[in-house]
Every structure is written in structure tokens, then in C-alpha cells.
Design brief:
Strand content: 15-25%
Largest sheet: 5 strands, mixed
Pfam families: Integrase_H2C2 (PF17921), RT_RNaseH_2 (PF17919)
InterPro entries: Integrase_H2C2 (IPR041588), RT_RNaseH_2 (IPR041577)
Number of strands: 19
Protein name: Ribonuclease H-like superfamily
Shape: extended
Distance between the termini: 61 Å
Oligomer: single chain
Strand order of the largest sheet: 6-5-4-7-8
Number of helices: 22
Length: about 700
Amino acid sequence: MLVKSLQSISHIEHLEQCFAILNHIGMKLNPSKCTFTVPSGEFLGYIVTERGIEANPRQLNAFLSMSSPRSIREVQRLTGRVAALNRFISKSTDKCLPFYNLLRKASKNFVWDKNCERAFGELKDYLSKPPVLAKPEFGEEFFLYVSVSDSAVSGVLVRIDRNDERPIFYISKSFSVAESRYPMIEILALAVVTSARKLRPYFQSHTVVVLTTQPLRKILHSPSQSGRLAKWIIELSEYDIQFRARVSLKSQVLADFLIELPLVPNEEEEKEGPWILHVDGASSKQGSGIGIRLQSPWGEVIEQSFRLAFSASNNEAEYESLLAGLCLVRNLSKKFQSFKLTRVSRGDNSAADALAALASNSEVKVSRMIPVEVIDHTIIAIGEMNFVTTRSMHRRMNEEAPQGVEEPQQDPEVRTVIKEIHDGVCGNHSGGRSLAFKVKKYGYFWPTLIADCELYARKCEQCQKHAPSIHQPTEPLSSVSSPYPFMKWSMDIIGPLHVSTRGVKFVLVLTDYFSKSVEASAYANITQGLGSTSCIAFFGKSGLPPRRATGETPFSLVYGMEAVIPAEIYVPSPRRIENPRNEAANSELMVDVIDTIEERRNRAFIRMQNYQNAAARYYNSNVRNRHFDVGTLVLRKVQQNTTEEGAGKLSIIWEGPCRITQVVRNSVYRLENMEGKAVRRAWNSIHLKRYFI
């Protein structure tokens, strides 16, 4: 435990705060192991002073006093002492490479050669004056220098102290067999990833600027990368890392990082590069033309268009363009030794193609120059906007955002961005959270991003009308218990209607609640429909349906016994054979059945209610109440008779909006359209959903 103070006058106060924390958690200290008011001291194997972090003198003396190793065991002891000082050694892997190679060959023989002795001497000279590492300050930027050698990647994390670069931590890592075959730019990216892994606490709490002359930012910010580069990009996205161009080093301590990549001799650079000639021809109704573009190895470009005064096909224009280009090259003062003809795609020959098209549409015998100017800013004035460039700005905006705002007012710029991405030319009417991630992907962010996107998507009229149907019930299940036929039935008289040719104008409708069967007959007057003929025809329709939740057949619950099926007529069953022979016993049996029929009906009624209660419990578990007040705007589900003809799956599912005018009872409402015209019949809430504006 270390308590540090920048000023001695505040040290007592800091100690009091430390002791208060120890008392609160019940921790005790051993006074014999405590040291107070020391300007410097040893902590975790290092010497902490006002100047910074220094190497432990005992560890330095243990290394400097070593003689040249004479065995593998002594080489291992040497590398172990170097590992304890790795934090202070720049490019430690490169400096200790001869020792590591010697350990790999230890199984064969031990030879301490001149390379090992020279590396041992250079390491002693380096550690005779070890660097003093700077202590980090809260909130400041750190800078990372990386370097790649033939055998390892190295890095150093530095901070700016009074216009001087001071190192904080040195890292180094040797290549594995697979890593040694990486492309050079990926090895440089590996150096950044290795630094982030070993210095994770520094990268998490500070902004780190990588100073490099290579296009690392383009490599590590490209969304099209795959494989290990994609994995590295995801790993580094956790930190606030910036990339800047490297300038001259300000500290002699960082001299080892002057060269970022190893120098690879390239014999081709000594030779002069080739001249590149692009030619193309174009033919149209207006005429024919050719375009020529010549580029030197130094980037100089010569462009020219020619209008052909004679009629030429497209192939002839191509040949003419090649010949004209070769004539242009021959007239140059430069002498060429050889040339090579290569057919390229149209995309790689766009400049010459544009010149040829320009010449084919130009007037004959009219020479002209077309100046190309640059427009520095957009013609449409766009107001200034603030963009999030670092993760620290992102966190700071979230912390400063007001909390608990129910319905924030959207800025015009915010609504324009959301509207274009949601339902613009390339929009797909995505949901709220998906829309928020798309907005962030395009580079926009504000503290209430998700809430604004969800609010906009919820109010989108097309999204509301094409939303899926709601299948959840809105009211508990209400069932009618009718365990056997004719226990409950209804009789309705409809009329008077228009008099038919037979002189009838009333309709008598009989409905059985058990079988849901309906019997309808037409009559001239009301009293005529109450005759026995219609009722007898209705009550005779019981049939023999299969057993259901009652455990009995409907026929047996009505008449007390099972019906005689047609098969028993042709193939007599025992009751068809015995009952006619003993009519007295059969009559007594029928009387006994009639006496117990009420008990059987009650038992069937109880069983039916248990069955209905179980079905109601399952049905009611999915009930989601949707209550609407008078004046609420709602959408109405499109019925089969009102669907758009020919639309198919692309037709809307909800139509409207409509306004609630009356609450008939729970979940039943009367509606009117936006013109004030009443909608026919009442509507259940399962066919309605709230409309947001």
C-alpha cells in the first residue's frame, strides 16, 4: 500500500483519509512494517522518487556484476535477471536475441560466441545508465512509438513533460513462426495490438496517440477487413486510440525507435519506372473520337482528345487511338527500349474513355480547352454540427445528458437524419433500436439517440399500417355450459320482412347451444311459426356425435340410453335380440334409466365446467388488456372483404385512423372515421390498435 502526496503539507490529510478507509473496512497495519514521510522508497520491486520510477539498484548490481556465462544454467540466470528489468530496456527482445538463440540450441552444444559477448557488453553499457520512467498524470494524452525488426516488435509509451518526451513503459515481443510470415503492415498492426494487451490499464484510462508514418489508421478502421485484422479491429475498438503522422523524436532515450520498419533493399527502385499509356476510342451517331492519357513515372500526366473527321466503327476508333498514342510517345524526347500491350477493364481506363466520349460529341475542326475547377464547399448551406470523434467524448456526452425527460423536442437536423435513414430513398422502415444503430453507423450520435429513433419508428404511418396482426386476446374467455342437446336453446323471430311470393314475411330461427345447429322456417304471421311441426323438426336433430368433454354421448343424455346405430339393424346386437323377447324387463330398465338420468346430466355438467375452466385458464394466460378512451385514435384491422384487390402480401394489415366515439362495454367500441362518419356496427378491441401521431 502506497500513499503519495505531491506536497508535504497535504500528506497528513491524505494519511487521515487512508486510515479512515482502513478503519471502515476493519483492516489493521503492522507498525514495524510501515514507513512514513519518505521522499523515495521501494515499491513492488521499483524505486519510486519525485523524478519518476527507477530500476532497483540491487537488481542492476546483480546484473552488472555478472561475468560471461559458461553454461546453459548461467544463461538462464542471465535472461531471468534481464526479464526483471524489461520495463526499462528499449527493444529488450532484440538486445537479448543471441541469448535466446543460444538457449534454443542448448540441446546440441553450448558455445558462447562473439555475438553473445557483444550483446552482453552492449546490454551492460545500456543498464549502466538506465532510463528514469515518467509517472502518468490523470487525463493527459500518451504517445506510442512502435518499431519492427527482423525478429520482434517493440513499443514505448511516452508522455510530454515540459516539451520533452519521457518514456513510461517499454515493451517487446518476439515473433512466432506464423507471425514472422505476416505482411509488413500487419506486423506493424501487431505491434499496436501487443502494446494494447500489455499496457491495458494505460489504454483504458487515457487517450493514446500512435505516431507512425504508415497507413495504420486506414488498415485498422476499414470495415471490409476480415480474419485476424477484423479480430484486432474489434479488440482495439475498446480503447480511445488515435493515429497521427510521426515527427522528429525529441528525446535521445527514444533513439531506438527512429526507424519504424526494417530497411529492405529493393533493386527495382534503382531502375526507372515505366511510362503508362491509356488509350480508348468511342463511336456514336454524332461521330467518332479517341482519347489518350500518358503518365510518367513521376506522376506527370498528358491528356489529349482527337475528333475523327471520317466515319469509323468502334473497333476502328480503338485502333486509331492506339496508333495515335504510339505516335505521341515516339515524338517525345525520351527514348524507350521496349513496350508491352495490355488489355485493361473499362473501370481502369475511365480517364481515356471520358476523353474519347468528349471528342466523339464535339464539333469537327474546333479546338478548345476545358478548364476543371474545384468547388471548396457545398452549394447548399449546412449548419455546423458537432460530431463524436473519441470514446471519451461519447462517455462525457452521456454523463452530461439530462435524465428523466419524457418527450424531448427533436431538433430539425435530428428529424432530418432519422427520416432519411428510416423511410428515405434507401430506407427500409426498420425498428427503433435497429434504426438507432444505423444512424450511429453513418457517423451521427446524440444522447437520446435510441429514444428518438424508437419514437419516430412508432409514429411512422406505414410501419403502423403494415404491423403484424395482434393475436393476443383482450378479454377473458366467456363460455356457455351446455353438456347435452336442448339444455339451452333460443328462439328468435325476425321480421316483418318484404312479403314473398308465397305470402310469408316472418322467419322463426331455433338455435341449440350444444350442437350450434340452426333451424329456420318462414311464416305469414308470428303465431303460425309456433306450431309443433317446426319444433319437432328441430328437436329431432340430435344425431350421434362422438363423446366429448362430458364423457357421454348427447343421445344418451337426452333419452337416457344409447341410440341404435344402422349396423345393429343389419347385424343384430345382443340388445336387439334380447329386448324384444322380454318387453317387461326392457320397460323396467327404461324406467330405471329415466330415474337416474338427472344424476348423469349433473355429472356431465360438472365435467363440462371443469373442461371449460381448464380451457379458460390457458386462454386467459395470454390475455393482454387494451383499453381505449373516447376520442382515442385507433387503427382497425383490414377484413377480408375490405382488403386491397391484387395487393397480395403487400397489402396493408391495418386501416384508418378512426376515432372512438362510445364505449359499449368492456373491449367493445363504436367508431367514426376522420370525416365524422360513423363506422357500421361495434368493434371488439382485438381488431383495434392505438394510432400514434
